[in-house]
Amino acid sequence: MADSIRDPPAENTDFQELEDGEDLLPESAAARESQPASLPAVDISTKTNGPKQDSLFDEDTEDLFAEATEEVSLDSPERDVLLSEGPSPAITPITPPISVITPRIGHAHDDMFTHSSFDEIEEEDGGDSFDIHISVSDPEKVGDGMNAYMAYKVTTKTSMSLFRQKDFSVKRRFSDFLGLHSKLASKYLHIGYIVPPAPEKSIVGMTKVKVGKEDQSSNEFVEKRRSALERYLMRTVKHPILLKDPDVLQFLESSELPRAVNTQALSSAGILRMVNKAADAVNKMTIKMNESDAWFEEKQQHFENLDAQLRKLHASVESLVCHRKELSVNTAQFAKSAAMLGNSEDHTALSRALSQLAEVEEKIDQLHQDQANADFYLFSELLGDYVRLITSVKGVFDQRMKTWQKWQDSQMLLQKKREAEAKLQFTNKPDKLQQTKDEIKELEGKVQQGERDFEQISKTIRKEVSRFEKERVKDFKMIIVKYLESLVQTQQQLIKYWEAFLPEAKAIS
Amino acid sequence: MMEEVKDASSFLSVQVHNIKVTEVLQDGDSLTFIIVSQKLSGTGEFHVDRTYEDFEWLQQHLFSQEDVPGIQGVIFPPLPARLQVNPSSKALKHLGFLGLGEWQPYCKALEAFLRQVAAHSVLSKNRAVEIFLTSSDPPGRQKVKKNIFNRLSQAVEEMRKEGHKDVDDFFQTKRDHNFLLTGYTKMASEKFLDVVLTEQKIAVACGHFSTALHLCVEQGENPEKQDFSQVCVKLSEVFNSIKKSMTSTAMNDMNSLGLGLDLETRYQEAEKEMLFRRTCKLVELQNATKNADKAKPVKKAVMEEAKKATETEFRQICEVAKKEIIQLESKHVETLKQALVQWCEKQLLTAKESAEVYSQHLQTFKRMQ
């Protein structure tokens, strides 16, 4: 399908099934599964248009994506069409038709749509300011034994017109989140958007939950995961492009979501992914890019450094969390020993004071636990999130290199064809000559497209990096404020406890 | 150098309650303690320097006062274990709280020892105490005659006497109670030490985090970079404050309740030793009585003499012991009260200071947004 775009007048058999304008919409949703929206399907004005088939779809449906190279009206009602038609868009299959997906692997179809249209989406503030809050709550075990899973309630509260309601919830399971991330990554990573990574799988953690261990460590695991899922969704919707992605909207709004199958750990799709990852790693080593833009070189170095520093910080905080937990345990033990001492003490006032001491220490133990949680959930997880986010950032830089490589490859191929053409001029093979001339024409288009793609991805990355750096500051500040508030609160509690204990101690006589 | 020490009825020429161990001087592997005490009459101070051996010399003199009636009934103020310059981990564990900090808890413990000795009605009469506190020359370092008291830990064969049933309810109760209390106090002291050590670990971890944050400061003109750098610097300051707060908390713990629990533990062990000595004397008396009763007429008179002497000793010991026990009990209450009050006041102060500092940081960050 990707190739079809590059041919100006399209004659692709791939599109035969999509000829019927009527069927176009559900299928185009399928197309959207694997590619970025062919037409920026965002209506950010407050009008809601009914299903409309406007000029976008009336034209030559074989050349579905011809418009992709032109400016697209932002009033496109397409998105509304997608959501409001028929029963929930659960119709949208998770695995798109093969014809759509197969050409994908190894290709970049960033040319499916104009990036410029995305730019406009970003710049257009529209009627809505960013006002959305997502919470993940009420983890609930569904099923029994090894087929059991945790269902989480995802609640969205928003005043944005992007959504049909202001306050709504759906039930999702972990693989749904992974499925969402997988879709977003396949759509946006290769054109330079930093897609927030999904929380990590944990076979050990989940097995405990499945087996039904109701102990502290499995409760902690569930809480840790719940918190991670919440942060993941908030980070995703904070991205102005991702927020408007139909998959994201569907994830948040639709009551039924088809099961994401290719997230299973050892599935064939999983293995395919691993193979691709390995191939990528090899490719990365062999791509030697002529970096003409110092900004990119500097930024890449910068992110390498940041990665190392954040990992160090993360390790440091983990050590701190560990010690705090130890302090809580020790405090509890001391409290017990103080209680025993108080019990065996003859002197009444001293005995009472020692018992009070034991109680104070128990309360302080609780404070230590709360503080350890703050250390963990605020800092440790924040730093962990950013370490993973930077992996995504590095991925995006890699994609740029790949895009460049593709462009260079096309250029080399064009050069060869030209040489071949030159040779054929002296032979009497008009057919071959014509064929070569056609191929040259095709390649020239490819080269042009390749250059455009490269420029676009470079531009996108610059913007994304800037956005990342802004977000980073905001994120850290917010977490730090929360942390300081918890510190202040802890100290004030301590003050209360000591003030209550002092008269008891003084009363010993 | 003093050759011998007479047991004169001289009292001390120093004020007892403010004897101070002000400094520790290190010379290679040896430590010297500077002891300052105030003159009783007029103004002026005594400054003396003593090593741990000098402390041991003093203790030996106190132990070996055979002619003081009932001396075995005295609960001897416990001398802290020897402090080494580079202690092994076993030695450190043995020292407990006294091994922490920059030797300050240890100095405080030595101070307490001297004050207790100087305040003791019987012990302060020993010339050795006056010499120790006031003589500019180091007291004699030759070995005094052997300590007549069998330290509990050494007298393994005597251990079975520990459980020997008493003839006196008062003492039986005291022995049972002491046994319990010693165990619990020791455990509380050890658990509290664990708390303090962990607090110190947290302080160190905060320090590391604070330093690591400085590495995140980025050079560059662009405002986002500068913003982030500023965030890192300010956060580094926050963690530095947390480190200071934790360090203070640990210090407060060490210097008040920690020291108090440590002293209590050692005093209870001293009481245990005294009670054991009395029990041994009781066993001796019961044996002497049996022997006197069973003695053949030829030996009878001698046996009776021996029995009477032992009886007197035992009676004297019990008298002294009773007084000592009662005194210790009120001291024990006073020690713990002081420790608890001091500890609570210090922690309250630290908590208030920390709350203030954190609030300021919070304001700074809120303003930054």
From TrEMBL, chain A:
Major place of residence: other
Signal peptide feature range: none
SMART domains registered for this protein in UniProt: PX
Coiled-coil ranges (or none): 433-460
Comp. bias intervals (Acidic residues): 14-25
InterPro entries associated with the record: AH/BAR_dom_sf, PX_dom, PX_dom_sf, Vps5_C
BP-aspect Gene Ontology terms: early endosome to Golgi transport; protein transport
Keyword Nuclease attributed: no
Region named Disordered: 1-56
Record's bilayer topology term: Peripheral membrane protein
Function: Involved in several stages of intracellular trafficking. Interacts with membranes containing phosphatidylinositol 3-phosphate (PtdIns(3P)) or phosphatidylinositol 3,5-bisphosphate (PtdIns(3,5)P2). Acts in part as component of the retromer membrane-deforming SNX-BAR subcomplex. The SNX-BAR retromer mediates retrograde transport of cargo proteins from endosomes to the trans-Golgi network (TGN) and is involved in endosome-to-plasma membrane transport for cargo protein recycling.
UniProt-recorded name of the protein: Sorting nexin-2
Native organism: Oryzias javanicus (Javanese ricefish)
TrEMBL record, chain B:
Annotated PX domain residues: 1-140
Gene3D superfamilies, sorted: Arfaptin homology (AH) domain/BAR domain, Phox-like domain
Entry's Gene Ontology BP terms: protein transport
Superkingdom field: Eukaryota
Molecular function GO labels: phosphatidylinositol binding
Keyword Transmembrane: no
Swiss-Prot/TrEMBL keywords: Protein transport, Transport
Keyword Repeat: no
InterPro entries linked: AH/BAR_dom_sf, PX_dom, PX_dom_sf, Vps5_C
Membership in a protein family: Belongs to the sorting nexin family.
Protein name, entry field: PX domain-containing protein
Organism: Oryzias javanicus (Javanese ricefish)
